[in-house]
Design a protein that fits this description.
The chain is an alpha/beta fold. It has nine helices and eleven strands. The strands form three sheets. A six-stranded parallel beta sheet has the order 4-5-6-7-8-11. Strands 1-3-2 form a three-stranded mixed beta sheet.
Amino acid sequence: MATTKPSESESSDQRGNSTYSRQEAAALMRSAVPLARQATIASSPSGEDYAPKVALSLGSYGATMQPSTEYSGDYQPESMRTAKGLYNWHEERLRVFKDDEATWNSVDCVSFETLPLLREIHATRHVIATHEDNDGKKWWISCVFPNDDLTMPDGTTAEQAVCAMLSLEERGRPWGIGINCTDIKKLDKLIRLYETAAMKALGRDCPRELRPWLVIYPDGAQGSVYNTETGEWELNPELKAQGPQIPWHEELAKIVTSSAERRLWQGILVGGCCKTTAEDIKQLRSQLAAVQSDALYLETG
């Protein structure tokens, strides 16, 4: 991750991390977009009439700290403990991509993901309201739930998070709301909490075509926990003692199918976060394709 310090040339800080000028950092950040677009072209199956999409994934402010704090929500400096400070930070970062026409035209979707704080949800909604226009892009907000009581790092419940993401009192309502970088064992309960809260926020009489998409991409750690101090994944001893786990793709396919059959979302976008591989996604797709349910339509675009 490049940091945006206003130095004129590359140097190193006391911890040995490279630092860049704002211009250099912006160029490095934008360089990921054409690489992603090239990958979609190279991976498109011949003879199939669909175009893979490029999502601009923008993480939380906490992901830029060292050690990272997206799982604790302990933000520094003090200015980043307010919705206004977080809005300014997220808005400035988004402009790195939007102010370059070629880059922005190569982006299909924009996500604000792994958010650990309620105020960061409000901040990113404000960013969406500021930049949302008629260019056809889809925006989603996704939160992380590392706590055993199914709350976000700041204690925000799933219901409160959904209300913040969907409230009609604020502008910038996202196309989708999600859960990412969260233990798959928590996912089914969290989705059900999301469903209850979404129906309360929008009303059960809200037409399905006006409802949000559910976006879910849990981690593939299979019980391992990321240690932000060491940068290593550590296996939970209790889970290790339980023996082999259900394959990730099988468990996730079951959860997705169950939610789809309740028919409460306009659609479901599903994938994987930390520790998932291309093979995991391939197996997940095959698993979902084999499901016999009229509630599940596998969209390839």
